[in-house]
Every structure is written in structure tokens, then in C-alpha cells.
Design brief:
By secondary structure, this protein is of the alpha+beta class. It contains 12 helices and 15 strands. The strands form 6 sheets. A 3-stranded antiparallel sheet has the order 3-9-10, with no helix packed on it. It has a 3-stranded antiparallel sheet with strand order 5-4-6.
Length: 460
């Protein structure tokens, strides 16, 4: 029995369970209407009810035939010493720690709530009760306008990590091709592009095959923009001011509000807190203090030339590394940016629309009426604001993971259930030679063996 279990690629206890089921199925193949439980081994729940004896007999016969093929082939391979012909049954078991990707929401579906609706209602009820009492409501940092000093270093690290990430990704993209579907926007990293038929949008072909074209940085690291606020606890941007207020990357705006100083984007730093009395914000500072001069360090001309020169200088420091070195440093910058952003967002609020990708960094969303998502007519074009997550601020574009580029790297549609996924920038650095962290192990499914095209039908 031990030799047979080793030939099947199973544990000895698993093999005993298999033969219990086999013996039971052979003895009870003509009478399958009763409850199916023998020696602690039970069939799936759907096989217990609503299945006739004839149908169950056909299912059991097919299952026995497949198990017989695996037993015979693995036993014969063990006898002649050819382990490469064994069918590794355990690789396709249900014990795999595969992390399901978040499914693509329909146009009529709203993003999941970070805080439950009942909790939001409870907080709103308490706020209404507090407004009825004329008393001061204590505000903590950063709600009172002051900075959280412990998060200022994280803001500087996130901004520096983002600059390093963009530089490393641009260098790796010179040696790795990125494809984007012209119809649905799906992204694939590496050559050749996959053959998985998942293009299911209006205008796609009947075969659901993608129409590939060469992509770039915007497909690997899409930029999510936000309005830059001079006063983060001031009034929201109105619809008439939408063309007067600068829009910058949301991750940069988060760093600025957390304490990063950029001369091109001035912001107000308070020295005295703001008070909340009966639901109204009271600011005892002047609107523009004497020591606060927003236009002091801004050059009226030559901004783009200065920006290009500074980015070129940063790239010169990294020219000494090879592609694998760029990938390794880019992977470290990616992890540092995600970790720092999540820590900052625990204190500094970020809002996102529940139906579109609009993001506003700050305690409340703007009032610009440019939402074109589900039922925007009922909201007069305004966004349905809710609490944002790190994925809303830094959207991870999930792509199919290619394990071995030396074998051609072609992913076919028939074996898509054995493939894993990774964020596009992680897959880009992984193909360039960077080591992928353990936190992505459940996503890329390295513990699942991909069968060959002629072996897929033998998998149980």
C-alpha cells in the first residue's frame, strides 16, 4: 500500500481514503439512492440529494475510470524509475492557498464600503446630536489642521520612493514589452501576449480574443489625479473652480498634506488648531498670515525645463545598474510606497467615488459635477463619495503571471485556471530578474503545477 501511495503521489492516509471510496463505489454502484457515508468518507453535498441512481452510477464510473488511469500510470512510472511521467495529483488539490482576485464590478455596482453602512449611520447620528449642543468638540490631528509629526518622514519616503519607482520602471520598459488591448484595456507584460479569451466588451470579436497593441508606462502605473488643496480643511472645490485649481497625482497630494513641502504646490501650514463648536469650524488664525507667502519660491518661467533637468539628474545616478538591478530597486520602491501610503491613510482621509475612479485627497470630496457613471443624472453629475483604499490611490493593474519565459511564455486559454496573477509593475520587475515577495505567493500560484496541453485532460 505504501508503494502504491508513493506511485500516486499521495500520502498513505489519502490513499486509504481513496480506496475506501473506490470499494464503496464498486459495491454500491447499483444502489446509490441512500445516504453516502462510509467510514467517515463522504461525497460532496450536491451528490447527496436530487440525484438518481442511474446518474450517480455514471458519475461514479467516470470518476473510478479517471482514478484508475492515475493509479496505473504512476505505479508503472515508479516501477521503471521514470518520475517525470508521474501525474502529481496533490498539485491540483483544494488545499492550494490561492487568493481570488477582486472581480470586475458591473457598471451598476458600487465599490465595497471600507466602513459598514450601519457604522456610518451611527457616526452621523452622533454628529447630529453633538451639533444640537453648544459645546466645543475636541478635534485630534490632522482634523484640527495640524500635522501629524510622526508621519512627516513617511511622506518624504513615499515621494522619494515614487520618483525611484518611475525611474526604474522606465529603464526596465526599454527591455520588456508591454501590451494593451485596444478594446477592453487589459494589460499583458512580456512577449508574446497571452491567448486567453477574456475580452468581453462591446465591439469585441465573437471569439473574445484581445486585439493587442504596444503599451507604455501609463498601462503599468496608471496615474490617478486629485485637486490640489491649499487648505485641506477649507471649503471644497466647486464646479466653477474646476479649471482654476491644479490637478496633480493623488499620491503626491497625499504626501503634501502629510507634511511634504513642494515649492510648486504651496499649502497652508497652521500653527494653531481649528476648533469645532456646535458643528461649525472656527479658525482663529488669519486667512493669510504674514509669514505665509505662497508665491515666494515659485518661478514664473522655466518650470518645465527645471523639472526635466531634475528628472534627468536623478536618472544619471541609476545608469550604473543593469536591468536586474533596476528591477530590484524598483521592487523595493514599490513595497516602500505601498507601506508608507497605507500608514499615512490611517490618519489622513482620502475620498473616492463609489461608481467611477475619481479620487479626492482630503476630509471631504469636491463638488465638481463630472461623474458619468451609473445614475449620474440622479446626482446631477456629482460623485458618490466614500472612504478610499490604497488600491483607489495606487490602482494595481492585475496581469497574468508568466512563470518561465524560457519556454516561450505563451499562456493559452485552456489552462487559464492554473495561472496566477500579479500587479503589472510587480510582473514587470519579476520578468527582469527581481525577487517577488512572499506576500504575492498566493496570487501567482507557484504551488500549482501547470500541465502540458496533452496532460490537461488527465487532471482530476
Amino acid at each position: 500500500m505504501h508503494d502504491l501511495a508513493e506511485g500516486m503521489g499521495l500520502k498513505f492516509v489519502d490513499c486509504i481514503g481513496v480506496f475506501r471510496v473506490l470499494g464503496y463505489c464498486v459495491g454500491q454502484s447499483n444502489n446509490m439512492g441512500n445516504r453516502m457515508e462510509v467510514s467517515g468518507t463522504r461525497f460532496p453535498k450536491e451528490c447527496e440529494t436530487g440525484v438518481t441512481g442511474e446518474l450517480m452510477s455514471r458519475i461514479t464510473t467516470r470518476w473510478i475510470r479517471n482514478m484508475h488511469k492515475i493509479v496505473v500510470q504512476n505505479s508503472f512510472a515508479s516501477l521503471i524509475g521514470l518520475d517525470q511521467f508521474k501525474l502529481r495529483c496533490r498539485s491540483f488539490s483544494i488545499d492550494s492557498t490561492y487568493e481570488e482576485m477582486p472581480r470586475k464590478l458591473k457598471k451598476s455596482e458600487r465599490k465595497p464600503w471600507v466602513t459598514s453602512v450601519n457604522e456610518l449611520k451611527r457616526k452621523a447620528r452622533l454628529q447630529r446630536q453633538a451639533k444640537q449642543e453648544v459645546s466645543e468638540i475636541t478635534l485630534q490631528r490632522p482634523e484640527n489642521g495640524l500635522l501629524v509629526k510622526a508621519l512627516v518622514p513617511f511622506a518624504c519616503e513615499v515621494f522619494a520612493a515614487r520618483a525611484k519607482l518611475l525611474t526604474c520602471a522606465s529603464m526596465v520598459l526599454k527591455s520588456t514589452i508591454v501590451y494593451s488591448c485596444r478594446l477592453c484595456g487589459e494589460v499583458h507584460v512580456g512577449n508574446p501576449p497571452h491567448k486567453i479569451r477574456t475580452c468581453n466588451v462591446r465591439g469585441s470579436p465573437a471569439t473574445k480574443e484581445h486585439v493587442w497593441e504596444t503599451g507604455g508606462m501609463e498601462h503599468v502605473l496608471p496615474v490617478v489625479e486629485s485637486f490640489h488643496l491649499y487648505d485641506r480643511i477649507g471649503r471644497a472645490v466647486s464646479h466653477d473652480e474646476r479649471l482654476e485649481v491644479d490637478r496633480i497625482p493623488a499620491i503626491v497630494e497625499l504626501c503634501i498634506q502629510a507634511g511634504l513641502d513642494i515649492p510648486e504646490y504651496p499649502t497652508r501650514r497652521r500653527t494653531f488648531p481649528v476648533y469645532n463648536v456646535a458643528g461649525r469650524m472656527i479658525d482663529f488664525e488669519k486667512r493669510f498670515p504674514k509669514h505665509d507667502s505662497p508665491g515666494k519660491d515659485i518661478n514664473a518661467h522655466g518650470f518645465w525645463e527645471t523639472r526635466n533637468q531634475s528628472s534627468g539628474i536623478k536618472s544619471m545616478h541609476l545608469l550604473g545598474d543593469d536591468v536586474q538591478g533596476f528591477a530590484t530597486r524598483g521592487m523595493e520602491a514599490w513595497e516602500k510606497m505601498l507601506l508608507g501610503s497605507s500608514k499615512i491613510m490611517q490618519k489622513y482621509a482620502v475620498q473616492t467615488c463609489g461608481y467611477c475612479s475619481e479620487v479626492q485627497v482630503g476630509p471631504k470630496g469636491h463638488r465638481v459635477r463630472n461623474c458619468q457613471a451609473f445614475k449620474h443624472q440622479m446626482r446631477d453629475g456629482q460623485h458618490a463619495w466614500q472612504e478610499a483604499t490604497v488600491d483607489d490611490l495606487i490602482p494595481p493593474v492585475h496581469v497574468w503571471h508568466v512563470r518561465d519565459m524560457q519556454d516561450g511564455g505563451l499562456l493559452v486559454n485552456g489552462l487559464k485556471r492554473y495561472y496566477g496573477k500579479l500587479p503589472a509593475v510587480v510582473e514587470l520587475f519579476a520578468q527582469a530578474g527581481a525577487k517577488v515577495g512572499e506576500n504575492y505567493a498566493s496570487m501567482r500560484r507557484e504551488d500549482v503545477a501547470v500541465p502540458g496541453p496533452d496532460e490537461e485532460k488527465l487532471v482530476v
